[in-house]
Amino acid sequence: MGDADLEEIRRARLQQLQQQGGGGGGGGGGQEGEDGQEQQRHREAEARASILGQILEPAALDRLGRIRLVKASRAEDVENRLIGLARSGQLRQKVTEDQLKDMLGALSEQQEKKETVTVQRRKGGWDDDDLEDLLNDDI
């Protein structure tokens, strides 16, 4: 990832921060605010697409698009991870489709671990019958 890529990311982020902090004056109509937010989301989406286009090979970008059609949240997780790696300078070359598959597998394993619920029951503990026996003995 070159200096031009980083500069583009910085410009997109600066523009985002300026719009968040600079829209404070007056009691303008709600429509203008909604249009501004929509434009901002559109610019953010374009910036993300531009970054992903620079760090992914065409086959990997195509696969990510297909993943987005099936499960948008998973595609967003992968995109966030890829953009984070690019910003930190850990990507030395464009990501291939096989590398993307590996990343998807790793994310899938992490999500499975998060979603696992383990129920452990105590053995030899109290049950409802014991409680009834205790109450009946006191009467």
From TrEMBL:
Keywords in alphabetical order: DNA-binding
Molecular function GO terms recorded: DNA binding
Gly residues composition-biased segments: 20-31
Taxonomic superkingdom: Eukaryota
Entries under Gene3D superfamilies matching the protein: PDCD5-like
Region of interest (Disordered), ranges: 13-47, 111-139
One GO cellular component, as annotated: nucleus
Keyword DNA-binding applies: yes
Biased composition (Acidic residues): 127-139
Residues in the signal sequence: none
Biased composition (Basic and acidic residues): 38-47
InterPro entries hit by this protein: PDCD5-like, PDCD5-like_sf
Family: Belongs to the PDCD5 family.
Name the UniProt record assigns to this protein: DNA-binding TFAR19-related protein
